[in-house]
Amino acid sequence: MQTAVSQTSPPKKSFLYDPKVRGIFYQVVLVAAIIFLFYMAATNAIENLQRAKIASGFGFLNNTAGFDISQTLIQFSAAGGTYGDAFIVGLLNTLVVSAIGIFFTTFLGFLIGIARLSKNWVVANVAMVYVEVLRNVPLLVQLLFWYIAVLGALPQPRNSLEMGAGFYLNSRGLFMARPLWGDTIWVLVAVLAIGIVGTLLYRRWAKQQQERTGRQSPVGKVALALLLGLPILTWILLALLGTNPITFELPRKGTFNLTGGMQVLPEFVALLLGLVTYTAAFIAEIVRAGILAVSKGQTEAAGSLGLKPGQTLRLVVVPQAMRVIIPPLTSQYLNLTKNSSLAVAIGYPDLVQVFMGTVLNQTGQAIEVVVITMGVYLTISLVTSFFMNIYNRRMAIVER
Amino acid sequence: MKKALVSIAFGLTASLFATGASAQATLNSVKQKGFLTCGSNTGLAGFGQPDAQGNWTGLDVDLCRAIAAAIFDDPTKVRFIPLAAKDRFTALQSGEVDVLSRNSTATMSRDTQLGLDFPVINYFDGQGFMVRKKLGVSSAKELNGASICTQQGTTTELNLADYFRANNMKYEVVAFATSDETFKAYDAGRCDAFTTDASGLYAERLRASAPDDHIVLPEIISKEPLGPAVRHGDNNWGDIVRWVHNAMLNAEELGVTKANVEQMKTSTNPEIKRLLGTEGKFGEAIGLTNDWAVRVIKHVGNYGESFEKNVGEGSRLKIKRGQNALWTKGGLQYGIPVR
Fold this sequence. Notes:
Pfam families (chain B): SBP_bac_3
Protein name (chain B): Transporter substrate-binding domain-containing protein
Family (chain B): Belongs to the bacterial solute-binding protein 3 family.
CATH architecture of the domain at 38-46 and 54-148 and 267-395 in chain A: Orthogonal Bundle
Largest interface: A-B, 46 and 56 residues
Helix content of chain B: 25-40%
Keywords (chain B): Signal, Transport
Shape of chain A: globular
CATH architecture of the largest domain in chain B: 3-Layer(aba) Sandwich
Helix content of chain A: 55-70%
CATH topology of the largest domain in chain B: D-Maltodextrin-Binding Protein, domain 2
InterPro entries (chain B): Bact_solute-bind_prot3 (IPR051455), SBP_3_CS (IPR018313), Solute-binding_3/MltF_N (IPR001638)
Strand order of the largest sheet of chain A: 1-2-3-8
Structural class of chain A: alpha+beta
Number of helices of chain B: 14
Strand content of chain B: 15-25%
Number of domains of chain B: 2
Number of strands of chain B: 13
Distance between the termini of chain B: 46 Å
Number of strands of chain A: 8
CATH superfamily of the domain at 38-46 and 54-148 and 267-395 in chain A: MetI-like
Structural class of chain B: alpha/beta
Shape of chain B: globular
CATH topology of the domain at 38-46 and 54-148 and 267-395 in chain A: MetI-like fold
Distance between the termini of chain A: 58 Å
Order of helices and strands of chain B: HHEEEHEHEHEEEEHEHEHEEHHHHHH
Radius of gyration of chain B: 20 Å
CATH superfamily of the largest domain in chain B: Periplasmic binding protein-like II
Number of helices of chain A: 11
Oligomer: heterodimer
């Protein structure tokens, strides 16, 4: 039996019932509502600030600051520095303590993480106690502990501990000789550059040679000779010729304290110690988890190929573990950077202390200052995770 | 610390959505709440500090109690909110506190750019230095090269920079968020000198591990007119704060004390009659009752009584009246007449 095929196309659904159109419609409404909310909040805030006669806008960044800061990596003084300069000083102090902290905490974290897996009972348990104690005490408490411990243990400036080679230690910090660059410093820089290029070339050649013949070359020793030996030799030679490229300004005793030389503030040391030891406890657990994630068969296979335990760890286990380690490691780096804002409790002039503390209070422009500070931390975090993501992609297993 | 941050965050959010103030807005909201919120020091002996039982005492605290007494006839209807120097103005701007009575220096920029008003000066002060005796320093001019501990976000921090620049001396500043942290660091030997308002130096010295090892240097390097602050724009509220303080000054000048205020109501002296509200309607003019000053003096006392009890001879601080004596005794405290 044949039925008549309807010639009319299915009844055209109303435009209103098209799920796609509806979806777009609701999203547009949502975005508009959010924009409107922000617009309302912003205009309302500006209006209220004006009515309350509170200064607003970002012009304050060009005003003279009028206060001093203990640690400044750029030229900054109460006389000439602006609030904008104070912002940069604080930002640099945050970046410096974060960068140095990330470097040391990675090293310490890996060391402890590997130690936790040691077959030596004492080593493994010392590492375990370290992790359990450090990660279970709030960081703020640890920072205060380090600050008080560091301050309490050190002598007053008049009885500074002399440690030789121009190093002194007292309650105002660590003092060391300041290097002054001579006229011939460029020779030294050039030699160092040659050393770096030479090392890279030699490493490439050594790798190619190993792939071709299986013979291994003493890369470490050669690199040491090129990177350290060559510049030091040049330095001695230049010094003998009477044009010393580096001279040192030693700290001298002043009325109150040592003057001259370089000074590392106790606030910086306490903050760095606190951040490094605290974050290392977390990194140690991440490293341990990463290593345990590599199946035991890999280690056994490496052993049966005749690799020594050190080589097994370096060449077989760690490269595979890195895939598991890197993403949570990135979070720890971000945590360390953000935690550095606890510096405010021990008087280290980081971004929060200088900018959200002194500048906010002296200018009273809370909204602007808080917005800038949040923006800075967001940017630092995004940049860090951007680079870690690139590294992660390079380390990821290449599927064939 | 965290609490302060949270309060700033809330305050900012509130200021984003708050609507404008109307006349008598602060007084009405205080009456509605049933208590006054007073921004106080986190702990400064003689000016604002909770005792072992949690009762706040001090010269600045008394001013808040006096305001509460004038409004509610009850000096306990105050909630004290301890604020670090760097958080205090934000807390006031955002409405978290009704009045900031926290040894804050009145300056032009704070008055004009922070949206604040300083109705009165309840303590005339100046900035000084404290050092350890064994340093052998006898003048601030000898502090070239010293490390100096100070609290951040204060006029102290700025005066310090000015003073060393003007005298062409070098120094290392170590700034902390709270007065407590600042003094602890000085006491632990982090700094050679500690600087704040002279009144604060005497108060903090009491907390040193060995108070007698420290001396206050003779130089006073700045003018620090300390007083309560209110938000700009609510003039009625500013008037209340101004007149509560002036009532305390006038009471001292006229000999009206906590003990004799009830008898003084029958006085025939027209100045006392106007002050105590038995003549005229001065209290109603600022939105209070006409016996507002009686309430203040009955519960808190006059300015002299409050001074002696908190910072003067009756206290551990033993600060002389000096500039804070009444004008009739060679000081700067001058009660504006009630008429």
